[in-house]
Specification:
Layout (H helix, E strand, L loop, with lengths): L2 H9 L2 E11 L9 E7 L22 E3 H9 L4 E5 L9 H9 L3 E6 L11 E4 L9 H6 L2 E6 L3 H10 L7 E6 L4 H14 L3 E3 L3 H5 L3
Parallel strand pairs: 2-4, 4-5, 5-6, 6-7, 7-8, 8-9
Antiparallel strand pairs: 1-2, 1-3
Helix pairs in contact: 2-3
InterPro entries: 7-CO-7-deazaguanine_synth-like (IPR024924), Aldolase_TIM (IPR013785), rSAM (IPR007197), rSAM_sf (IPR058240)
Organism: Marixanthomonas spongiae
Cofactor: S-adenosyl-L-methionine; Mg(2+); [4Fe-4S] cluster
């Protein structure tokens, strides 16, 4: 990035935009809802099973003015999902302020590994063992989505559930490549522990982005 652009990115006035698209939310509480997705590049959490590893290196994605991002989003939907990468790598205050000025409902999908910035109507927290969430984001999470890759992840899920607020909705979601193996275990676990719900990546079954 040029120094001038990097300064604007650091302020949150530009963001390394990987992609933006209008689709159906496939996961969690809002599954089935039409939404405009803003995928921001940059993430150093490094989950080995991440299905968007191309998002990790922010330098591969062009710094884009947030005014342009908001203008694009406003053509499609009043429900916005900011995802990554890890969007909290960057200052989300300027982007969410401008989206709010348009009257939009703004959701974030985050690992919570960095300081919570921005104004959000819904926070989907998907914690990772490698770099745990900040204390602040645990208390503000609306839904907790734990990815189940192996049996040890059930213990991790319970540890994470103990840190969120009482009204946070709890989801267990199989890692896509392990879904056939882990889904029966998740179903059994949820039946024995009904505070949890099952989350599926329904957009992959529907073959949509």
């Amino acid at each position: 990035m040029q120094d001038e652009n990097q300064d604007l990115v650091n302020k949150g006035e530009m963001l390394p935009l990987m992609e933006e698209f209008y689709t159906i939310q496939g996961e969690g509480f809002h599954k089935g809802t039409a939404a405009y997705f803003i995928r921001v590049g940059g993430c150093d959490v490094g989950c080995h099973w991440c299905d968007v590893k191309e998002s990790w290196n922010a330098d591969l994605h062009p710094p884009t003015a947030i005014d342009q991002i908001v203008e694009n989003a406003d053509k499609y939907s009043k429900t916005i999902v900011v995802t990554g990468g890890e969007p909290l790598t960057w200052n989300m205050n300027p982007l969410t302020q401008k989206l709010k000025e348009k009257g939009m409902q703004i959701h974030i999908e985050t690992s919570g590994a960095y300081k919570l910035t921005g104004t959000w109507d819904w926070i989907c927290l998907s914690p990772k063992k490698i770099k745990l969430p900040t204390p602040e984001v645990y208390k503000k999470a609306d839904e907790l989505k734990v990815i189940v890759y192996n049996k040890n992840d059930f213990k991790f899920a319970e540890e994470q559930a103990g840190k969120v607020g009482d009204n946070c909705i709890l989801y267990l979601q199989p890692e896509w490549s392990k879904r056939d193996k882990m889904m029966p275990l998740i179903v059994d676990y949820v039946m024995q522990n009904p505070k949890w719900k099952v989350s599926l990546q329904t957009h992959k079954y529907l073959n949509i982005p």
